[in-house]
Design a protein that fits this description.
Elements (H helix, E strand, L loop, with lengths): L1 E6 L7 H15 L3 E6 L13 H5 L7 H11 L2 E7 L7 H13 L10 E8 L4 H13 L13 E3 L3 H4 L3 H28 L17
Parallel strand pairs: 1-2, 1-3, 3-4, 4-5
Helix pairs in contact: 1-7, 3-4
Length: 209
């Protein structure tokens, strides 16, 4: 069992990384493998809605998105970490997620993959960034992992996060909850398979009725 961790911060050893480290360490102790992808320091352009991926099964821009897609396919869960900018997520990260989720619509079955968002902020704005990431999961039939507080840490630099004992505690509890969900869902999937997902209706109002 494996979880893909995505660091959306351009600071590879900053606050977001420190939160993810605490999560990863605990997850490994629970018997789950991890693989890390760093996004925030990469040049990731946004989706241009060309629908190349619908025909070819991959994004027209051959960058980190296409490199990550098979890792996403193999993972039982994904955790996405972001710093908070103007009460939102890192721009490169959002471009990455837009293209990753859209370009894998037909190639990666996301049903019942476990998703989690982690945010870091100096002081405020983190909950809206938290909501922003979670929406990728809720549109994809992916259950969201919760913890004992919102999944966030506070600090301006990584050393500050060391003082956020509740934030680090939240990361550890999040990891334990995610490991539990992955194992429980895997057992149920082995027993009965994945739940059926209907895709026959598409509300577009194009009939002008």
């Amino acid at each position: 069992m494996k979880v893909l961790t995505v660091n959306g911060s351009p600071h590879l050893h900053g606050c977001t990384d420190r939160a993810l480290q605490e999560f990863e360490k605990t997850l490994v102790a629970c018997g789950i493998e991890i693989e890390r992808v760093n996004v925030g320091n990469k040049d990731i352009r946004g989706c241009i809605a060309c629908n190349y991926c619908r025909e070819h099964g991959r994004c027209v821009f051959n960058d980190l998105v296409n490199e990550t897609a098979p890792k996403f396919a193999q993972a039982d869960g994904i955790i996405v970490g972001t710093p908070t900018y103007y009460a939102g997520s890192n721009g490169q990260l959002l471009s990455f997620l837009d293209r990753l989720f859209y370009s894998t619509a037909k190639t990666v079955n996301k049903t019942m993959k476990i998703g989690a968002a982690v945010v870091s902020s100096r002081r405020g704005g983190s909950t809206s960034a938290f909501d922003e990431i979670n929406k990728y999961f809720t549109i994809s039939a992916m259950p969201i992992v919760s913890s004992t507080y919102w999944n966030e840490v506070h600090g301006f630099v990584a050393e500050d996060v060391e003082k956020d004992l509740e934030g680090l505690q939240t990361m550890r509890n999040l990891a334990r909850n995610m490991a539990f969900m992955i194992k429980a869902f895997k057992a149920q999937q082995d027993k009965e398979g994945l739940p059926e997902q209907e895709h026959t209706s598409f509300t577009s109002f194009m009939d002008k009725a």
